[in-house]
Design brief:
Length: 117
C-alpha cells in the first residue's frame, strides 16, 4: 500500500460520517509546496469559500507556502471568508492527513478566526 492509498483509506470513514450528517465541511489538502482549504456545502456540490497559499494575497505575506506559518495565514483567511458567506459551524475534514503540523496550524487558526468545529 502506498502513501496515497493509505491516506485515502483514512479519509473514507470521516467523509462518510460527514456526508451522513449533511454537515458543511472544511476540507484541507496539503502538498509539499502549498496548502489548500475549502468550505464545501452539506450536499457536497458547491464550494462556498476557499483559500490557499497559491493566491497572490497570501504569497505576499509568506515567502514559503509549505510551512506552518503559511497554514496559519490560510486558516485565518478561510475563517474570514466562511463567516462572510454566513457559515459559523463546520465539520473538519482533514482528508486523511494526520492532525499534526500544518494541518493542525490551519485548524487552530480557523478556530481563532471564529469557525466552530
Amino acid at each position: 500500500m502506498n502513501k496515497k492509498v493509505a491516506r485515502m483509506r483514512r479519509a473514507r470513514k470521516t467523509r462518510a460520517k460527514i456526508a451522513e450528517l449533511k454537515a458543511v465541511r472544511l476540507t484541507v489538502h496539503r502538498s509539499n509546496c502549498h496548502i489548500y482549504a475549502q468550505v464545501i456545502s452539506g450536499c457536497g456540490s458547491q464550494v462556498l469559500a476557499s483559500a490557499s497559499t497559491v493566491e497572490q494575497a497570501v504569497r505576499s505575506q509568506v515567502p514559503n507556502g509549505g510551512n506552518a506559518q503559511a497554514a496559519t495565514v490560510v486558516g485565518k483567511l478561510i475563517a474570514e471568508r466562511a463567516k462572510a458567506a454566513g457559515i459559523e459551524t463546520v465539520a473538519f475534514d482533514r482528508a486523511g492527513f494526520h492532525y499534526h503540523g500544518r494541518v493542525k496550524a490551519l485548524a487552530e487558526a480557523a478556530r481563532e478566526g471564529g469557525l466552530k468545529f
